[in-house]
Structures are given as structure tokens and as C-alpha cells.
Design goal:
This protein is mostly beta strands. It contains no helices and five strands. The strands form two sheets. The chain has a three-stranded antiparallel sheet, with no helix packed on it.
């Protein structure tokens, strides 16, 4: 994404290590971004196509910002199949 202009998108398929009992809530955030300094930083990140087994993490930019790299973090919160599966320490 360092070159080019206009809408650009990158997507990663994320698979949970264990399936949730139902579709979880997924929170995503940028934890690092490296963008060119000659234009405004324009970026959006979100979870799409969330299921019990995973989701697509999607990063988008638009207009003219060059993007060298980004790092994203995510957190999925949801129910488990059996209440006895909870381990609380």
C-alpha cells in the first residue's frame, strides 16, 4: 500500500483456536501504523464475516496516504458451549 492512490484494502482470515458456542463480539484496533508524512493518515480497521470459528480482519485506506505497515490486535468475547468450561484464575 506504499504506492497507489484511492481505495485500498488488505484482509486476513483469523481462525479462533477453539470455536465459540455462538457468534462472539470481536473488537479490533490498530496497535502500530507506519504511514507517509506527506499526507493525512486515513485508515479504518474492522472485523467482518464474524462466525463461531473466526472472522476476517480488514484494513482499508483511501485517498493518498502511503502505508508501509500496520499491526492490529483483536479480542473476541463470547459464550462457551458448557458453563463448566470456564477456567477462572
Amino acid at each position: 500500500m506504499w504506492t497507489g492512490m484511492g481505495p485500498r484494502k488488505a484482509s486476513w482470515a483469523i481462525k479462533f483456536s477453539e470455536a465459540f458456542a455462538a457468534q462472539p463480539l470481536v473488537h479490533v484496533s490498530l496497535t502500530m501504523w507506519d504511514m507517509g508524512s506527506d499526507s493525512n493518515a486515513r485508515a479504518a480497521i474492522r472485523a467482518e464475516n464474524v462466525t463461531e470459528t473466526g472472522f476476517d480482519l480488514v484494513f482499508r485506506t483511501w485517498s493518498d496516504p502511503p502505508v508501509a505497515r500496520v499491526i492490529a490486535s483483536w479480542l473476541a468475547i463470547g459464550g462457551v458451549a458448557d458453563p463448566e468450561q470456564w477456567d477462572i484464575y
